[in-house]
Design brief:
14% strand, alpha/beta, 2 domains, 4-stranded antiparallel β-sheet, Rossmann fold, 568 residues, Growth Hormone, Chain: A, 7-stranded mixed β-sheet
Length: 568
């Protein structure tokens, strides 16, 4: 009876341990793939590649577990290794990337070389490539060791029972699947919203606890016991340090990748937010650059070019400006330009509540000098009483607007590029067709449409998709925004005259802009000869097809060296 009870407690311990470790393993997959997606800039394919790679590595680890002679000792050492790799991998990756990106500048400064002569080719380029792809290496190694856990736990159970257990693997795998599901839920509900270094430290702590419990519970079956205890104590100190200071270290390493001084960096639930500042002399204001997940969103030096083209043509060509809808634009800059047209009401829909709060009340979180600069840019547009802010996924939010039978005199879509499948749906026929229902008959819609130079097919696909959504006339225009290069927009009418025709009927912009003129807008509709020659081969983006996402992803991969230039 006593032995039976002892075996029951052993089984409970081992099965619970397997469930906890399965959750940890899944979280490590998410942590590494999430961070790799930020680093490489291609979130979706990176996540899938990382998870697939780790699953393969886990299979290899399961095979390799047969070589471990003592399952008890092997398991404790295994949890030490996993805890170490799990807690430190992201910091090591960040350090490698920062080192390879800044080393050419250090050498250039040492030998007094001009910036365009810094050594970035040859071995330096290879080292940079290795550093940026190091997440895959750590995913492979970590997956290999995680894969050893199930075979070792299964062996330990049979050694304790001193016989072959008929349903041993089924029991262990059952605990593994349940634990993985719980781990996924913890990731979504809790860990995704905290700093990535804290999340890795907390997860690694569970591996360390599992190892510690095994030392205490199976003390007599272990060798090198003092060494194991010492290693656990040292690793505990390291994990506490990573939890406490890891985010600061990671931020400092990430900040080295930016050309200008990083003055603020933080993480919202959905994205990494970074502000940089460039001092160009006592006579002029500092240049503020704003990045999301390492990609430039605007520069204070030329954001007015982008936003003037996004806002002025669509409002100049619409019959009225009383009720305006903005999709995206949580930084308040497009809204600032819209308010100059004296609308009665503006509805702004953006998903990221924390981002909106940052730009609504910058003095609450940002350094005072930066907050003052942001306030100067936005002109407190998000605090205007005429503005109704809806913090929700635009794909779902427009259904509520339709249910309330709302219509808008003009619609402005200021969303990030379709660099993720979740954004791809906001560039689909389904989405544009529902926006068409919200648009007044004599109104226009404008859509930021990526670069017609660097992502030509994605740009054309946006125009074709809007056309397929049933708009009467769809046209596109472009101009140079120095911080981005050649940039493009799409404009469409629900019925009546084409947008360009309406603009040509004007003598000047109804609301003058400090930089943009009507002739500049009209000329922006001209493209190079044969620009649309192969447009029939460009697909339309239907919901679920991911056509625009794939086109944009291909363009990003082709131009990655150029698009990452702002970080170097």
């Amino acid at each position: 009876m006593t032995r039976s009870r002892s075996l029951l407690w052993d089984d409970v311990l081992l099965i619970l341990t397997m469930a906890v470790l399965a959750g940890c393993g899944l979280i490590y997959e998410y942590l590494l793939s999430h961070y790799a997606g930020r680093v490489l800039g291609i979130m979706e394919s990176t996540i899938y590649a990382m998870i697939g790679l780790m699953i393969v590595a886990m299979g290899l680890g399961a095979f390799a577990a047969r070589k471990i002679q003592c399952a008890f000792n092997g398991f404790v050492w295994l949890e030490l290794i996993i805890a170490f790799l799990g807690s430190s991998s992201i910091l090591i990756i960040g350090g490698l990337i920062a080192l390879t990106q800044t080393f050419p500048e250090i050498l250039g400064a040492m030998f007094n070389l001009p910036p365009d002569a810094y050594p970035r080719g040859g071995i330096f380029k290879q080292l940079s490539f290795i550093a940026f792809n190091s997440p895959y290496f750590f995913g492979l190694i970590l997956g290999f060791f995680i894969g050893m856990e199930i075979p070792l736990i299964a062996r330990i159970r049979e050694e304790i029972h001193q016989k072959h257990l008929k349903n041993n693997l089924g029991t262990i795998y059952g605990a593994d699947y349940v634990g993985a599901g719980i781990g996924a839920a913890i990731w979504v509900m809790f860990l995704l919203s905290i700093d990535i270094s804290k999340a890795s430290a907390l997860t690694a702590a569970l591996n360390l606890i599992a190892g510690t419990i095994f030392i205490l519970y199976y003390w007599q079956k272990l060798t090198w016991r003092k060494t194991l205890i010492t290693a656990h104590a040292v690793l505990l100190v390291m994990i506490i340090a990573i939890y406490q200071f890891g985010n600061g270290w990671l931020s400092q390493m990430s900040n080295l990748l930016y050309l200008d001084k990083v003055v603020y960096s933080d993480k919202t639930r959905y994205q990494q937010v970074t502000f940089t500042q460039r001092n160009i002399g006592p006579e002029q204001d500092n240049i503020i650059n704003f990045y999301l997940n390492g990609r430039l969103q605007f520069s204070s030096s030329d954001e007015f070019i982008y936003h003037s083209y996004l806002v002025s043509p669509v409002l100049a060509g619409s019959a009225r400006h009383d009720n305006i809808l903005i999709i995206g634009g949580g930084d308040g800059l497009a809204l600032r330009d819209v308010l100059q047209w004296q609308p009665k009401n503006v509805t702004l829909v953006d998903l990221d509540t924390e981002l909106i709060a940052l730009f609504t009340a910058p003095h609450d979180k940002l350094p005072q000098s930066l907050a003052k600069a942001i306030e100067g840019l936005t002109q407190k547009s998000l605090q205007d009483p005429r503005v109704n802010i809806i913090t929700a996924d635009a794909f779902l939010a427009i259904d509520k607007l339709l249910q309330n039978q709302q219509t808008f005199d003009a619609i402005i879509v200021d969303l990030p590029d379709p660099s993720h499948p979740d954004l791809n749906k906001l560039y689909s026929v389904n989405f544009y067709a529902r926006l068409k229902q919200l648009l007044a008959g004599d109104g226009l819609i404008s859509i930021q449409s990526a670069s017609p130079y660097h992502a030509k097919d994605a740009f054309i696909a946006i125009g074709k998709t809007v056309q397929a959504a049933g708009f009467s006339t769809v046209q596109q225009y472009h101009d140079n925004v120095p911080s981005f290069g050649e940039w493009g927009w799409t404009i469409a009418s629900k019925m009546g005259a084409a947008p360009l025709t309406r603009l040509k009927d004007l003598s000047e912009l109804p609301t003058p802009h400090h930089w943009l003129t009507l002739p500049m807008v009209i000329n922006a509709f001209e493209f190079s000869k044969n620009f649309y020659q192969n447009s029939e081969n460009v697909p339309i983006n239907y919901l679920g097809s991911h056509a625009i996402y794939q086109l944009h992803q291909k363009a990003w991969q082709d131009q990655q060296g150029l698009n990452n230039a702002h970080l170097q």
